[in-house]
Amino acid sequence: MAAFPAIKTISRRAVLPLLVSLLGGAAQAAADVGVSPWGPKDEIGRLNLITPQSRAAIMARVSGSHVYDLAVEYFVGMPSWQAAGDPAYQMWMTHTPHGNVIADPMKVGEPMNQHVSYSGSAVSMYAHMGTHIDALNHFGLNGKIWNGFRADEHLGDRGWNVTGAEKLPPIVARGVLIDVAAAKGLEMLPDSYRVTREDLREALKIQGVALQKGDVVLIRTGRMRDYENAQVYMANPPGLSLDAAKFLIEDGEAMVVGVDNLSFETFPSEVEGNYLPLHTYLLAIKGAPIMELVNLEGLSRDRVYEFAFIGASLKFRGADAAPIRPVALPIK
Predict the structure, then answer these.
(1) Is the pLDDT score of 163 beyond 90?
(2) Among residues 72, 95, 75, which one has the least CA distance to residue 3?
(3) Quick one: how far is CA 105 from the chain centroid?
(4) Residue 275 reports pLDDT greater than 90
(5) In this structure, are residues 280 and 246 in contact, taking their beta carbons and an 8 Å threshold?
(6) β 194-195/216-220 pair status
């Protein structure tokens, strides 16, 4: 498919630096993957922070006044990683009312096909597009992923036999929006802006919100405003710095982190000390799943900064990501 010729140009200055710095530099990194405090068989990392008590506590505070849908729509031409060689979203009709009259696939005869209309469709897509969650096998170090699982032992032709997207449990937790763009008085952060630790602290102060252990923390850059224009949305996105991610995980003790762009970080990716950039730091070292393309515009508009977050991803066996349909429920 010849869609998005401009994105091929973007790949030279955006996508390739990410792949080179993340994948090419892995062999040189002295850091190693995280060892789970939840035991040698743990496959979900910080999602172990979800407990019956934590779920009950946040659901007891739900006001029921509104439901915010945090997912984007999937459509032909949507933003994707085509520049990196990954497939675009495609949808095609497998059955149409008129086609059924011609083909009679169920052998029911023309009168029945004329009387009863029937449509069917199919889709194909890359796992990391649309609103999705990264599983812990998405990035690794030194041939290993989170908790020391080795690719040469656990990755086969049909995906991973550990830490696959099917292992991710439904997420019910306190959610926090950190609206960095609004805190700066902007509709959208500038191209390639790298969100800092201080940006997050300042936004939380303005919002009057404090992070708590086990939160789902969602960062708004404002990039979602360009979602309908794939070439603009993908070009030079703002994203988080490594230091900002460390603040969320190590200081704020977040469970899951998410953002409204398609890369979480921005380009060129950072390499600081012995750590590789954000995906490796969060997934492989800290066991923190990542959500991308989260639609935060409604929450920002209504200044809803604390909520019950509920989301369940599709159970793609052995996959390194899966679509998720999260919702936010305001709390009392």
Answers:
(1) yes
(2) 75
(3) 39
(4) no
(5) no
(6) unpaired
Residue 305 burial (10 A CB sphere; 0-12, 13-18, 19+) = buried
Structural domains in the chain plus CATH codes: 5-74+127-330 (3.50.30.50), 90-124 (no CATH)
CA distance 101 to 96: 9
Encoding tokens for residue 56? 């009950």
Cβ atoms of residues 89 and 125 within 8 Å: yes
Calpha distance 260→297 (Å, rounded): 9
DSSP letters spanning 58-116: HHTTB--S--EE-PPPP-TT----GGGTPPPPEEEEEE-HHHHHHH-TT---HHHHHHS
| Res. 130 pLDDT band, cuts 50 70 90 | very high
Tokens of 288: 């923190």
Tokens of 139: 């990035």
State both tokens at 286.
Answer: 């800290």
H-run or E-run covering 259: strand 256-259
Tell me the whole-structure pTM to 2 decimals.
Answer: 0.88
71: left (phi over 0), alpha (psi -120 to 50) or beta: beta
Question: Which residue in 172, 212, 157, 121 sits closest to 324, CA to CA?
Answer: 172
3-state DSSP assignment of residue 287: coil
Write the CB contacts of 295 (distance below 8 Å, at least 6 apart in sequence): 69, 70, 71, 72, 131, 224, 227, 260
The span from the CA of 73 to the CA of 92, in Å, is 16
Distance CA 190, CA 204 (A): 20
CA 64 to chain centre: 26
The structure tokens listed for 241 are 């710095």
Helix (H) or strand (E) holding 307: strand 306-311
SS3 52: helix
* pLDDT tens digits, one per residue of 212-261: 999 999 999 999 999 999 999 999 999 999 999 999 999 999 999 999 99
